[in-house]
Amino acid sequence: MPICIRSPASIANLGPGFDIMSLAIIEPYDDIYVEVRRGGNDDIKFVGSYSHYLPSDYRATTLYPVIEEFRRVTGLEFSVRVIVKKEIKPASGLGSSGADAAALTYALNKLLGANLDYKSLINIAASGETAAAGVPHMDNVAASLLGGLVIINPVTGDFVKVEVPSNYWLAVVLAGSKVSTGEMRRVLPSAVDMKDLKNNSAYVSMLVYSLITNNREILGKALMGDSIVEPIRAKFYPHYQVVKDTLLRIGAIGVALSGAGPSLFGVFDREPPKDRISELLNKGGLRDYILIITRPSNVGVHEIPCKELNT
Ligand code: HSE
Fold first, then answer.
1. 18 lines ligand 1 (CB under 6 A)
2. Closest C-alpha to 104, from 88, 87, 81
3. Cβ-count burial of 213 within 10 angstroms (0-12 exposed, 13-18 middle, 19+ buried)?
4. Residue 259 near ligand 1, beta carbon < 6 Å
5. Over the stretch 284-303, which tens digit does the pLDDT of each residue have?
6. What is the pLDDT of residues 12-30, one digit of tens each?
7. Which pairs with CB-CB distance under 8 Å and at least 24 residues apart come from 67-71?
8. Other CB atoms within 10 Å distance of the CB of residue 179
């Protein structure tokens, strides 16, 4: 029997939490149909609004390493038929590849009765990110798998899921482009100053505390307090300042790059006015962008009726 899985997009880093935290969001999401067979070849197809962004050879996508890694870890022999309905824009900073890797890993675990725990699932799904970024990073796949705000130690794989209070809204602005996540990682330093370590560690801790306790002022400072990664990456994105200024002017608690960019997101404690944001972005000279108003999702990958995929 095939199963169909819905997998939420995610916002990694949240300012100071480079590679150690990510937040699942309700929209956008990808839907994936997965069927397991005994023999035959793997058959992977992309449909949906952004399917044309994916390479035609599935071996070049993030799904191939996931399938291979699943075979290696479990020792099981199988082939898969997968249809991905791609509604999360690839390379936008919303964990597009991670969402698919998470969904496929979850589906294989279920269909093959492998009973792997979440730590193993995160590891397998993260191997898919190697195809996208050159090195595996676990933050996006962990958030898509578990939902909520996931804090993960990429050194040990230990993680914790934090339920996000229901009052938050997010405005996500997809604009500009990036060379690749891998490239946006190569521009970062391989070592950091102790001063920056202390700064970011303090703001990461405050971010989690203030998010849960609704401390607006500290949350804003924490989201915008990264002194290591975002200041470097921001220079690559000409739209960075106008988007940040606009979202802050409209009342965002804080604004930061989503993952490695190019998207930025603002956190709000009420529904942000879409028309007014568009108006100000247009006034600021931004022409080509997609504005998504969404909310944190405390639910990660989950089964849906296959008829919803409509494939
Ligand atoms: N933590 C990763 C990075 C997320 O910032 O490179 C990429 O989506």
1. yes
2. 81
3. exposed
4. yes
5. 999 999 999 999 999 999 99
6. 999 999 999 999 999 999 9
7. 67/42, 67/104, 67/108, 68/127, 69/123, 69/124, 69/127, 69/128, 70/105, 70/108, 70/109, 70/112, 70/114, 70/124
8. 12
- Give the number of the atom of ligand 1 that is nearest the alpha carbon of residue 95: 8
Q: Please identify, by atom number, the ligand 1 atom nearest to the C-alpha of residue 185.
A: 6
Q: Which two tokens stand for residue 41?
A: 């070849």
SS3 content of the chain, % helix, strand, coil (to 5): 40, 25, 40
Mean of pLDDT values over 100-105? 97
- Is the pLDDT assigned to residue 311 strictly greater than 70? no
Residue nearest to atom 6 of ligand 1 (CA): 260
Residue with more model confidence, 31 or 132? 31
Whether residue 185 has its Cβ less than 6 Å from ligand 1:
yes
At residue 60, the pLDDT reads 82
pTM (two decimals): 0.96
Nearest CA residue ID for atom 8, ligand 1: 259
- For 47, the token pair is 């449909």
Domains parsed from the chain with CATH numbers: 3-163 (3.30.230.10), 169-294 (3.30.70.890)
Say whether pLDDT at 132 is over 80.
no
The helix/strand/coil state of 206 is: helix
Of 151, 25, 134, 129, nearest in space to 87 by CA: 25
Contact 201, 301 (CB under 8 A): no
